[in-house]
Amino acid sequence: MEEEAEKLKELQAETEKTMGMQTTSPTAAAFPTPEEKEEADRRSVYVGNVDYSSTAKELEQHFRGCGTINRVTILCDKFTGNPKGFAYIEFADDSSVEAAVALHESLFKGRQIKVSVKRTNQPGMNRGRGRGRGYRGGMGFMGPGGMMYVPCPCPGLGAGTAAPVTVAVTVAG
Q1: For 113-144, what is each residue's pLDDT tens digit?
Q2: Is 85 helix (H, G, I), strand (E, B) or coil?
């Protein structure tokens, strides 16, 4: 059994040599290094305000005069599958990016598109809109003397006015 496995490995290596194939792991192409990603980003442009019915082939035809195109990516919503209205175009060389940026504010399918150099994402630089630390919940505010004012529709005070509420606050230290 082990002899057969050795023979198979030898045959496979011999076939790869004759066909000129490199013996790299299948994950090497699937996960580019950060340097490779940065290089691809330098050769890419962001295209905004893209018509929702646009196809990659139509975008490729619009930017064909700029240079050789490696890839056109139209981003879609992960839940609905509908296009988000922007795309990325990766070129074969850096000089094509300058030519593509010259098409900024040109008309594509009746819409004025925005073209800019693609920025490289910086890990850990999240610009999210989360509540983060320090969010208080928006239920009221503390007034002088430890009085908490909570908006409530109280009779006689009018709807939405703040009525004082006494709250005991214990500070652990």
Answers
A1: 999 999 987 777 665 665 556 555 555 556 66
A2: strand
